[in-house]
What does this fold into?
Amino acid sequence: MEKYYIKKILSNNVILVEKKQKNYIFVGKGIGFGKKRGDRLEELKEIEQKFISLSGLSQNEYESFFETVDPQIIELCKKINEMVSQEIDLNMSSKTNIGLIDHVNFAIKRLREGIEIINPFLYETKFLYPLEFNLAEKAVVMLKKNLNINIPEAEIGFLALHFYGGRGNNDKKKALEHSMMINKISNYIEKRLVISIDRDSFEYNRLILHLRGVIDRVEKHQYIENSFVDKLMNDLPLEFKVAYDISKIMEKTLKLSVPEGEIGYIALHLHKIISKKTKNDE
It folds into this structure.
């Protein structure tokens, strides 16, 4: 029978164990109570469901992790993982779990020190990844309740990117790049059209959702027909020019070409934003 041995008691509810020279974190109510280093764990069938593997950490990362992490954060992140699993039937990888613990621990530390968390890509992340944003909102409620600390909405955006990166083959870095790209596009639209965009407006939300669709189609090499491109170029010259510039911003990030048909549809969304703005200003 394989045996787990306790290497360190982090708290009554969190312990570090070793099995076959591999390290794991076990989380469970009272799991460390009355235990000491070197003890062998019993009731393995129940405990097996409560571990976080540390196999992805180097020795330096491993030592740094346990010098800085708050055991309560480990407990809460385990509960957050269970919440995510129930909501979308997904178990995050050990690497994602460790990243989540490290991120939350650092964020809480900064907040307790009075350091403001700023997220310039919050709106873009919210609209690009609504499912993950919803999960992040629930995670923040759990953190607030248990840590008795105010956590700003900016942190919800960062957690959403963690959850997105933990799903399947998704890439957290790419998700952040997409959010930054959409933010850059939004700022360019405001500057080029000399308008202030209401990030909560229906028209802006539709534009963001459409751009997300463009990203997906371009990356999957799927193309949509647009038989009105020539008419749009003639009828909406300003919007089409701005849409063309937007396509170039996207191409620089995506490293892929954006078809002319997509540019036409982006121009239509820009026209709706301009029309709504003009109507409101009358």
